[in-house]
Amino acid sequence: MILNNTLFETANRVHEKSFGKEIAFERAIFFSWGCSIGDCTFCYMSTQPYGKNPQETRRTTESILAEFIFAKNVGWDIGFFTGGIGAFTPEEIEFFLKAAYEITGEKLWLSVGPIAKPLLKKYSPYIRGVVGSTETINPDLHKKVCPSKPLAPYEKMFREAKEFDLECAMTFIVGMGEKKEDIELLKDFIQEYAITKIHIYGLIPQKGTMFENVAIPTAEEQAWWIAQLRIAFPTLDIQCGIWEDRTARVALLLSVGANSISKFQATKLFGLKQAQDIETQVKIAGRIMRGSLTKLPQIDWEKEVEKLSFDEDLKKKIKEKLQKDYLKRINHNLKKVSVLSI
Fold first, then answer.
1. Please, are residues 244 and 25 in contact by the beta-carbon 8 Å criterion?
2. What is the 3-state secondary structure of the chain?
3. Which helix (H) or strand (E) is 80 found in, with range?
4. In whole angstroms, what is the distance from residue 45 CA to residue 243 CA?
5. Which residue of 22, 146, 215, 224 sits 20 to 30 Å from the alpha carbon of 89, by its own alpha carbon?
6. pLDDT for the residue numbered 45
7. How confident is the model over 59-93, as pLDDT tens digits?
8. How far, in Å, CA of 312 to CA of 316, rounded?
């Protein structure tokens, strides 16, 4: 890809020297669809009725584990395991972490709000690190967009995570009103808390929020933040979040230093044009993606479930979920694409 920008060209050179050509698709796996905070002014959840019991928003065990199995077998990385505070008990979270480790063979990133030190210790055998949903680090902007989610508890978690040899990751949303000079605040934050991974998203203006009529950040604006961080931190793991209407920017975001792609509704759109567009964009960027968004592996999915140590009733439910919620829908997508291409 030709980059007509000195900053972007430099970032590309730094990235390729550190990481080469390989990139990944990351899947964040949610265990619930609710939030106990619910007033972040950019978020869809702020438009929903307040006070719903967090346990009413949680997914079934078989649904969560089926998604881990599917993601692993199509070659996706697990971006992080996340959900609403209070949806599951710490013991239940620990069960999922153990199960996910058995399925994927890898420790997870965990994003469940600020995690207390005893729970960091409890989860540490099964997690690689913790993710702070920091969103922005400009103090004035943060108070505006996350009035009930201060940075201090995340900062405390980051400090305590080091005691258990856990890595630290953070999120950053472009388009909420940050200024370019805030890059220095972001760099300082990354250095102070030894952040090894950052998720850089572009604002999705949600209906009913204060950002409803705000223009989405351009590809170049999102790329600017990625490029600045790639040059400043050559080995930082940078993940770019994109939505289905922003696939055309993937090549640029990868070229300026992103290690992976996320946020895309990959199971819903598997095999369809948007997924094909992403794979084309990866090639335009001169990158090689692990896994696929368009091709299912030729494997016996039931055997993938059977080899796990779960009880037989749970295995049966997982198999049913895999077929109903993943394989049936995706095979329908693939057949539709095949018909359209004739």
1. no
2. CCCCCHHHHHHHHHHHHHHCCEEEEEEEEECECCCCCCCCCCCHHHHCCCCCCHHHHECCHHHHHHHHHHHHHCCCEEEEEECCCCCCCHHHHHHHHHHHHHHHCCCEEEECCCCCHHHHHHHCCCEEEEEECCCCCCHHHHHHHCCCCCCHHHHHHHHHHHHHCCEEEEEEEECCCCCCCHHHHHHHHHHHCCEEEEEEEECCCCCCCCCCCCCCCCHHHHHHHHHHHHHHCCCCEEEEECCHHHHHHHHHHHHCCCCEEECCCHHHHCCCHHHHHHHHHHHHCCCEECCCCCCCCCCCHHHHHHCCCCCHHHHHHHHHHHHHHHHHHHHHHHHHHHHHHC
3. strand 77-82
4. 18
5. 146
6. 75
7. 999 999 999 999 999 999 999 999 987 889 999 99
8. 6
Quick: pLDDT tens for 268-319.
Answer: 999 999 999 999 999 999 999 999 999 999 999 999 999 999 999 999 999 9
- CATH fold of the domain at 6-294: TIM Barrel (3.20.20)
Domain boundaries, the chain: 6-294
Q: What is the DSSP letter of 32?
A: B
What's at 132, amino acid-wise? G
User: What is the DSSP code string of 46-76?
Assistant: GGSPTT--GGGGBPPHHHHHHHHHHHHHTT-
Please give the full DSSP string across 141-164, using - where no structure is assigned: HHHHH-TT--SHHHHHHHHHHGGG
Please list, in sequence order, all residues whose beta carbon lies within 8 angstroms of the beta carbon of residue 254, skipping any fewer than 6 positions away.
23, 240, 261, 281, 282, 285, 287
- Crossing angle of helices 6-19 and 219-232, rounded to 10°: 50
Percent of the chain with pLDDT over 70: 97
